[in-house]
Amino acid sequence: MTILCVRFQLPSGYEAALPGLLGLIEDFTPVVEALPPDGALADLRGAERYFGRDAEELARLIRVRALALYGVDCVIGAGPGPLTARLALGAAAPGSPCAVPEDLVVDFLAELPVGALPGVGTATARTLREYGLETLGGVACAPLSTLQRLVGARTGRDLHEKANGIDRGRVVPNAVARSLATEQTFPYDELNPDRHRRALLAGAEELGSRLRALEKVCRTLTLTVRYADRSSTTRTRTLKEPTAHSPALTATAYALYEALGLQRARVRAIALRAEGLTPADQASHQLAFDPVDEKLRRIEEVADRARAKFGPHAVIPGTLAA
Prior knowledge:
Blueprint: E1 3-8, H1 18-26, E2 32-35, E3 39-43, H2 45-51, H3 55-70, E4 74-79, H4 82-89, E5 98-99, H5 105-110, H6 122-130, H7 136-141, H8 144-151, H9 153-163, E6 179-190, H10 193-213, E7 216-227, E8 232-243, H11 246-260, E9 267-275, E10 278-279, H12 291-310
Parallel strand pairs: 4-5
Antiparallel strand pairs: 1-3, 1-4, 2-3, 6-9, 7-8, 7-9, 7-10
Helix pairs in contact: 8-9, 10-11
């Protein structure tokens, strides 16, 4: 097992600690890929030999240091590749990392539902289930030609390989500076979709305000929904044009949420991340000649000035979209 997938249990508004936590992992290996808003992948192939410890022992050491230095706990999954490590994370708990040996990867994957595989959206999972392919074990046993007829040639081959434990992914070192994130945490497990949407609205407005304050625009928006059982779902969408316009971010966040097709899901938190940040003065904006849109943009300018003068809570979340 050479890959760790780490998710730090960051308190709301504690995102600034993430770079330091990534630096903590980099004390063991320079090959660290940030998974905003609160996670990372780490390749430990050299670290295992250098420190004379296996991945599970290093995982426990990382957790102890995160607790001691930052007061932040974490859950960790380990496996021979990034995909297995990500999936193992779902079976881990604080203080109990889940490590999947290479010879048990296929057995571990076999019991997982098809929707657990990264990249399998609601529509693809529904198609597979309609033909009796409920688990990754079923997908692994299905003929490649059958999968390709159901979901397309490229997706079918990708599913077949991953379900059989073939992981072509790798850890790509990156930085978190080119993104911004916000997380709305519920005081209890929230089933009400209306409250989910309010959290999305508040998060999108916060991101828009922060982007405009930095004179940045984002190219993509990522939604992460965390559930009561510590599992999560993440979806990303590229925006029609780079923007910091709160209504555009809100509309995309709503579309990502609706695409999940959640039904009475017990949601613990909802996070939004703006990625692919670029200077606003280098971005183009398609003129819509829409008086409503122009009015909203003028209101945004007034609200931003109010926040700058009186603080971030000078404007109540949701008032711009009212």
